[in-house]
Amino acid sequence: MTELSGLSFAVFHNIIDGKPRSSSKLHRGVDSTTGKPLWNAPVSTVEDINDAVGASRNTFPAWSSLGYSARASLLNQFADAFLELAPQFTALLQAETGRTEGIAQVEVHWSPLWLHYPDESSLVMEEQSGPITTRVSFSKEESVIAAVSGTSTGLSASVWCGSVNTAQKLRVN
């Protein structure tokens, strides 16, 4: 087991700058399958958010200087540690959402696939030292709109290109 094996699934904190933080304001959900109250969860304050943003800004230079492969390796390690606790995360998800055990297991086991993706992806075409920079070139406006909005038609495309008329003319092959 990893260091995470001591992780509590009954007491929750926000993690800010690597340290647990509670709050004077708490939220308590209800298990929809039993009607019983769940655990207390801290409600973040503006100060919590500002501190988290500050911590991420302070950490970003070290993270980005690791290089793509090293970052992907750390994400893989996190995914593996997460899966070691799959039964606990499955039970947590069931209690929070009312999902069946089977559906919760699927979600728990699929989630780490997103963490493994960077190591298996060749999307990053060029990497520079320093800040993380990904460069992708597009030859047509509709390709950019489709990449950003997930579609080249409809309201989403209209928002991205700023014109309903332009969006209606777009087609991505």
From TrEMBL:
- The Aldehyde dehydrogenase domain is annotated at 27-109, 117-170
User: What SUPFAM superfamilies does this protein's entry cite?
Assistant: ALDH-like
Q: Does the keyword NAD apply?
A: yes
Is NAD tagged as a keyword? yes
- Short name of one Pfam family for this protein? Aldedh
Q: Which UniProt keywords apply?
A: NAD
GO MF terms held by the record = oxidoreductase activity, acting on the aldehyde or oxo group of donors, NAD or NADP as acceptor
InterPro entries for this protein: Ald_DH/histidinol_DH (IPR016161), Ald_DH_C (IPR016163), Ald_DH_N (IPR016162), Aldehyde_DH_dom (IPR015590)
Q: Which domain of life is it from?
A: Eukaryota
> According to its UniProt record, which protein family does this protein belong to?
Belongs to the aldehyde dehydrogenase family.
Q: What is this protein called?
A: Aldehyde/histidinol dehydrogenase
Provide the organism lineage as a comma list: Eukaryota, Fungi, Dikarya, Ascomycota, Pezizomycotina
